[in-house]
Amino acid sequence: MNLSKILEELLTHHRGKTFGIAFGLLFSILVITVGLLETVFIAICIYIGYIIGKRLDDNESFNDLVHKLFKDKK
User: Which pTM was predicted?
Assistant: First the structure.
């Protein structure tokens, strides 16, 4: 079996496991190289960036997003 067939098999039938392993490997490398708190901070920043990008992709204006986050709760 060649590498492209193996990757195709992994991405079609074992997508969740493959991405989980890749995420775990990346997380562990970051913890070893930059430390746990810095890695958690990076993960939070990535998540916030993902949420903002998803909202913009869904044609929701950035101002609407800011108003939703910081609206007065009475």
Answer: 0.63
Rounded CA-CA distance 45/47 in Å is: 5
Per-residue HEC secondary structure of 49-73 comes to HHHHHHHHHCCCCHHHHHHHHHCCC
pLDDT tens digits in sequence order for the chain, 74 residues long? 699 998 888 888 888 888 888 999 999 999 999 999 999 999 999 998 888 788 878 887 777 777 777 876 65
50 phi and psi angles, rounded to 5 deg: -65, -45
3-state secondary structure of 2: coil
Q: Is 30 exposed, middle or buried (0-12, 13-18, 19+ CB in 10 A)?
A: middle
Query: Two tokens at 67?
Result: 């108003």
Confirm if 29 and 36 have CB atoms less than 8 A apart. no
